């Protein structure tokens, strides 16, 4: 119990003094996870919208696959990207393994199916409401995709948050492709895992507190922004 | 503001439509020429809404065909649904959306959309969220949105069905304005008084068949079928 409270005190001191190691880890974590969300959104949201509006053979199979991939274990995503980026792999010449870039790719792979599957669900409801009206305007399937993405923007914000939550909380993928190199690829989750196993509980706890605070703050800010926007735009 | 080339007459030939094995229209012939509004009258379930959707090209007939000036061609005209869908955007963006689809540059489509909003008395609400409007305002916005592209034919499905009398009067005035600017209005209603006020011509539909197509004055003074006569007396309900 006293160990815990001592660690807690030390953790708060680290946070309060803006410890440099701590700040660097936090910054990199945010950079990697936000980049991963953006990359995954570029693919996942249009794919989700297309699956919501288009009817083609194989659509059902894709949806089932995406739903299954929502549960993709982070270590598997990490392993796949590791194999692709390792020196003897097909993309080995890029020299990305053990860089933040590789971590972005791995997290993007992990959350793109989540963004696609969730946005498909959200936009399918919107499409049911819009389909006849948009056809009357002469908008075909392809043209409906950007319209749905824009008109579903508030719901999609929640989808993006789910992706960000998953990316910032996972440890397996970034550990494998980033290597947890101090000052270079060490992020909050890998640092927590390492420091806990080393017994440096204050740093681990401080990182844990910050991680939770960030996830909370991001979600709260998004909720406030969403409510305000919905009040304006209906 | 209309296209210089006319695509009328709009002709339906032996038009059939069935859904789930139930026949809704049984081989219907109808010709729509330029001129004052055509009101499609008939009791509930007569097939009025289905007929509008077929004419507009939203659904594909089970049999027969629809031609614009003799050619099958792509769907034309604009339609206002009984419950129009308001895009989750501003009033102005709603009115401008069909123009955006048509590829008009931003400044031009905003000017055209503002002009359309002005004609329905919504210019002052242009920046409001469309879904925050009242039912009557939404219907007026739907009319402005349909007219923004200057369609040659405007299809209206029960445009006043869920409106209070004041809102319905405003909508009727807008419809008269659309017809006055030279667009062909084709509308369904089950409201006889409204049909008398707006119609130049009546198509009377009963159980999926077109029983009469006549100038409004003729139809109301001397209906040629017993069903139409019964409908005008308020006796024919289905």
UniProtKB/TrEMBL annotation, chain A:
Keyword Transmembrane: yes
Keyword Oxidoreductase belongs to the record: no
Membrane topology listed for this record: Multi-pass membrane protein
Transmembrane segments: 34-54, 61-85, 97-118, 154-181, 201-222
Superkingdom, natural source: Bacteria
Location(s), subcellular: Cell membrane
Keyword list, A-Z: Membrane, Transmembrane, Transmembrane helix
InterPro entries, per the entry: ABC_perm_TupB-like, MetI-like, MetI-like_sf
Domain ABC transmembrane type-1, chain residue ranges per copy: 26-222
PANTHER family in the cross-refs: PERMEASE COMPONENT OF TUNGSTATE ABC TRANSPORTER
This protein's name: ABC transporter permease subunit
Source organism of the structure: Plastoroseomonas hellenica
Upper lineage: Bacteria, Pseudomonadati, Pseudomonadota, Alphaproteobacteria, Acetobacterales
Automatic annotation (TrEMBL), chain B:
InterPro entries assigned to the protein according to its UniProt record, in alphabetical order: AAA+_ATPase, ABC_transporter-like_ATP-bd, MetN_ABC_transporter-like, P-loop_NTPase
Domain ABC transporter: 10-232
UniProt entry tagged with the keyword Nucleotidyltransferase: no
Record GO terms (molecular function): ATP binding
Main location: membrane
Membrane topology value: Peripheral membrane protein
This protein's UniProt keywords: ATP-binding, Cell membrane, Membrane, Nucleotide-binding, Transport
SUPFAM superfamilies cross-referenced by the UniProt entry: P-loop containing nucleoside triphosphate hydrolases
Subcellular compartments: Cell membrane
Family to which this protein belongs: Belongs to the ABC transporter superfamily.
The protein's name: ATP-binding cassette domain-containing protein
Organism: Plastoroseomonas hellenica
